[in-house]
Q: What sequence folds into this?
C-alpha cells in the first residue's frame, strides 16, 4: 500500500520532470558523440602506408623511421615495437598485445554511457508517459462535469515524454553502432600489424635478442 501511495504521489506531479531529465540525457549524449568524433578524427592515419613503411623499416633495422609516425594507433604500435625490440620475442609480443588492449580501451572510453542512454532513454520516456497518464486520470477524478476531454488532453501531453525518449535514443544508438564498427576495424588493423611485426621478429630471432640489434 505504501508503495502504491508513493507511485500515486509521484504520478500526481506528472511527467514533466522526466522531460528535463531526457533533455539532460540528450546533452550528455551529444557531448559524448562529439568527444568520440574528435578522438577518432585526431587518431586517423593511413594504416596501409604506415604498416608497409613500418615493416620495411624494421626489416632493415631502422627503428627511428619505424617509430616516427605516432599519430594513430598502428603508428604508435610500431613505436611500442621499437621500444621492446631488444627485449626478446616473448616480451615484444607481450608489449604489442598490451598496446593493442590500451588502444581498444581508449577507443571505447565513454561508449558504455552512450549505449546505456540509447537503450534506456525510451524506457525513461515511457515512465514519464505513465506518470502523465496517472496525473490525467487524477485530474479527471477531481474535475467534475468536464468529461473525458480532460484525460485525453493529459494523455496527449504525457505521450510527449515517450517521443522525446525515442528522439534521445536514436542518435545515441546510431553513433554507438558506428563507433563500435570503427573500433572493430581499428582492432583488426592493430592485430594485423602485431602479427606482421611478430612474424618479422620470429623470422630472425637475432634481431630481438639481448642488444644484438644495432639501432640507427
A:
Amino acid at each position: 500500500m505504501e508503495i502504491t501511495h508513493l507511485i500515486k504521489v509521484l504520478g500526481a506531479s506528472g511527467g514533466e520532470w522526466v522531460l528535463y531529465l531526457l533533455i539532460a540525457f540528450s546533452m550528455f549524449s551529444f557531448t559524448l558523440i562529439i568527444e568520440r568524433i574528435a578522438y577518432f578524427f585526431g587518431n586517423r592515419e593511413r594504416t596501409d602506408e604506415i604498416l608497409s613503411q613500418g615493416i620495411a623499416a624494421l626489416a632493415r633495422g631502422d627503428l627511428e623511421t619505424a617509430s616516427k609516425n605516432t599519430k594513430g594507433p598502428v603508428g604508435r604500435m610500431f613505436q611500442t615495437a621499437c621500444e621492446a625490440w631488444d627485449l626478446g620475442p616473448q616480451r615484444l609480443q607481450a608489449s604489442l598485445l598490451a598496446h593493442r588492449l590500451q588502444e581498444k580501451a581508449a577507443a571505447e572510453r565513454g561508449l558504455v554511457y552512450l549505449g546505456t542512454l540509447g537503450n534506456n532513454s525510451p524506457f525513461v520516456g515511457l515512465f514519464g508517459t505513465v506518470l502523465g497518464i496517472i496525473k490525467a486520470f487524477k485530474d479527471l477524478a477531481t474535475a467534475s462535469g468536464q468529461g473525458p476531454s480532460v484525460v485525453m488532453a493529459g494523455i496527449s501531453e504525457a505521450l510527449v515524454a515517450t517521443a522525446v525518449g525515442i528522439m534521445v535514443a536514436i542518435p545515441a544508438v546510431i553513433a554507438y553502432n558506428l563507433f563500435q564498427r570503427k573500433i572493430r576495424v581499428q582492432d583488426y588493423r592493430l592485430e594485423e600489424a602485431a602479427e606482421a611485426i611478430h612474424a618479422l621478429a620470429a623470422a630472425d630471432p637475432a634481431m630481438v635478442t639481448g642488444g644484438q640489434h644495432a639501432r640507427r
